[in-house]
Specification:
This protein has about 625 residues and is of the alpha/beta class. It contains 23 helices and 11 strands. The structure holds flavin-adenine dinucleotide.
Length: about 625
């Protein structure tokens, strides 16, 4: 029988260790194996992506390519600069391919893309082999074991996982790789349209990446930032499988840290080094296998004995959250990343709601400006100029480095939505999509829903204060001094409330608290703010006033109890259920709880689509800790 001629299609699995799909390709004992990556215009032009994540991707690709070459000097990661949907049918024929192998991906676009490529393979007589490897359990398998429903709590995920069986042990990296075959390019090169380009604002010059299918040197080399028209990245975090495995090794060496990790006890204000693993971007690009991470930790926990932490707060618990969101998305589909059409997401009449394509029902990425004031708040939040130093420090860290701690993400997400601005969580998710190194559609949308109390979590009376919450972690405000250098010499007692500092203290600290943060004179000198400016904006609003307004509005929305797939949401008649004054209506004398993050991993555990509804009422009555401020 003729030997297999295999394309291994790398996507978000940029590693050699623990790759079930790569193993399946090698089990074919191929005559030739082409490790390829297709430079997909969808991500280049149609999905938001900041410089830092692009650089991280290139790091992962360069590292993988070098590792492949170590195993076979004739091979490397071959980069084809064309859309997979158009290039595969041509290379199937031109290269005499018999098999296409890749890791499954349950995100919205990859599902659509892969269906097109699989159909083309079928037409060309090419056999397609896929394996799950991006999550602890196959997300579609989890959904099947959860009666076809999305996993809306960790317990549901764990129960479904139990039905599948224990997380499989990782498999070792291959020790050799076959030669690649010939790669003739005697076919037309389809150049994609660069319009619309959602990332045009980031390009310093025109991109040239699609000028030739094999790149400027004709050697299928990895892209460079210049080819993409991008200036250099600003993040200090570097990608690649080699680095990921080394970082994991270092974590595992610290048995106490690994076994007793409790997420709510890790500080969002700690930097150099951060308090959590920072492995999320590696997991996103598949440079680190999640099963490798899981079992390396679990083995330490099993040998640790008494005192080891447990899910959901433990390290393996964190990985369960990741699987929970993946399986929720796998069940719900494209609507998971938005409210409209999503039967598991509460409808709240937020400011700046998304515009929707009437034909597909999917958000276009644009939004309605229903309130110029809210738009101003959003712009100030985005650039880290809200006048609340804790929020601004986090947003500047996000922009500069592409990563912030989970509780930092809690703070800024709560602040933008139900705990301050009352702005649509989809706006915040889009900003995270642009700037996060680890942006993962399922985890991002899921966590934004959690924080905005639209799904997964319903205790909207628990809010993060941008003043008292950071004080718990960082009394002196070192984190703020690092990221908001305008305030670096301010006395600690004003560091989270600089507007309260008397003029004489402001003068001494070399800063004036003035302006709205949007006029050019008050913008930070660089988005990361290396230099010290001499002004810092006044706060966008009175936080105490806003949280009462928001909580009253949330209460009204919870009473209306509409889900995203309710007809009244689509046809606009939801408005009949809400007082005309919008978020200002409702009860104003409600109690709230200050969220100190201690229960950050406690979601709602219930089987219905609106878990926590009953629990919310119950906990509201029972809460003994309530404070009135
Ligand atoms: C509003 C918001 C948006 C978020 N967007 C993303 C995103 O786009 N991509 C993303 O990977 N995480 C996202 N998270 C989850 C979480 O903040 C990050 O995974 C975590 O901070 C990454 O840092 P780490 O690797 O040090 O995490 P660790 O605490 O070391 O955890 C280990 C791993 O567990 C996973 N994990 C931990 N917490 C979560 C969680 N809550 N949800 C899903 N996975 C988790 C990550 O893969 C992480 O690398 C978001 C959280 C919030 C509140």
């Amino acid at each position: 029988m003729a030997k297999a001629r295999v394309i291994y299609w790398f996507r978000t699995d940029l590693r050699l260790h623990d790759s079930p799909a790569l193993k399946a390709a090698l089990d074919l004992e191929p005559e030739v194996l082409w490790p390829i990556f297709t430079w997909d215009p969808h991500y280049v032009y149609r999905a938001r992506g900041g410089l830092n994540r692009w650089q991280f991707l290139l790091d992962c690709q360069n590292d993988l390519s070098a590792s492949i070459t170590k195993l076979n000097p004739n091979s490397k990661l071959f980069l084809l600069r064309e859309a997979p949907q158009t290039v595969f049918p041509k290379i199937f024929k031109a290269w005499g391919v018999t098999h296409l192998v890749f890791e499954t991906d349950t995100d919205r676009y990859p599902r659509e893309r892969d269906a097109v490529v699989e159909a083309a393979a079928k037409k060309a007589g090419v056999k397609v082999i896929t394996r799950s490897g991006r999550t602890l359990w196959d997300s579609d398998g989890i959904v099947a074991k959860n009666n076809g429903k999305p996993t809306m709590s960790i317990t549901q995920l764990q129960n479904a996982g139990k039905k599948i069986g224990p997380v499989e042990r990782p498999i070792p990296a291959p020790t050799s790789l076959p030669d690649p075959g010939e790669m003739p390019l005697d076919f037309e090169h389809d150049q994609p349209s660069g319009k619309p380009d959602v990332n045009s604002g980031q390009r310093a010059k025109e991109d040239t990446e699609y000028q030739s299918i094999a790149g400027p040197k004709g050697d299928f080399g990895i892209e460079r930032m210049e080819e993409l028209g991008f200036p250099s990245a600003t993040t200090p975090h570097k990608g690649g499988e080699t680095r990921a495995l080394k970082m994991l090794d270092d974590i595992i060496k610290n048995k106490d840290y690994t076994a007793t990790f409790e997420k709510p006890k890790t500080s969002p204000a700690q930097f150099e080094p951060q308090s959590t693993t920072l492995l999320s971007p590696f997991l996103h690009f598949g440079a680190l296998s999640v099963r490798e991470f899981y079992w390396r930790v679990q083995d330490v926990v099993d040998n640790y004995g008494k005192g080891a932490s447990q899910p959901p707060v433990s390290l393996t618990g964190q990985l369960l959250f990741r699987d929970m969101y993946f399986a929720a998305q796998a069940a719900i589909g494209p609507e998971f990343t938005q409210t409209l059409g999503n039967g598991h997401c509460k409808f709240i009449p937020w400011h700046l709601p998304s515009k929707v394509n009437p034909h597909t029902g999917i958000s276009t990425g644009e939004y309605h400006i229903d309130s110029p004031e809210a738009e101003k708040w959003f712009q100030r939040w985005k650039i880290g100029m809200t006048g609340f130093p804790w929020i601004d420090a986090l947003m500047r860290q996000l922009r500069q480095e592409g990563w912030i701690h989970h509780l930092g993400r809690h703070s800024v997400a709560c602040f933008l939505t139900r705990g301050g601005c009352y702005i649509d969580w989809e706006r915040g998710a889009e900003v995270f999509e642009e700037f996060l190194l680890d942006h993962e559609p399922a985890c991002n949308a899921g966590n934004w829903q959690w924080l905005s109390c639209t799904a997964f979590f319903t205790q909207y009376f628990r809010m993060y204060s941008p003043i008292s919450f950071p004080q718990k972690w960082d009394k002196n405000g070192d984190f703020v001094r690092r990221w908001v250098p305008e305030l670096k010499d301010l006395p600690a007692k004003y560091i989270y409330e600089p507007w309260k500092a008397p003029l004489v203290d402001q003068k001494k600290a070399g800063v004036r608290v003035t302006g709205d943060g949007l006029s050019s004179s008050s913008l930070p000198s660089s988005s990361s703010s290396g230099d010290k400016g001499n002004t810092y904006p006044k706060p966008i609003f009175d936080f105490n006033e806003r949280r009462e307004i928001c909580m009253a509005a949330m209460k009204t929305a919870y009473q209306a109890n509409l889900l995203g797939n309710d007809e009244r949401v689509a046809d606009g008649s939801w408005a009949d259920l809400f007082p005309e004054e919008g978020e200002h209506a409702g009860l104003r004398d409600l109690d709230f709880e200050s969220d100190d993050g201690e229960k950050a991993d406690e979601g709602d555990e219930s089987d219905d689509a609106n878990p926590g509804e009953k629990r919310t009422a119950k906990s509201q009555q029972a809460s003994s800790k309530k404070q009135k401020k």
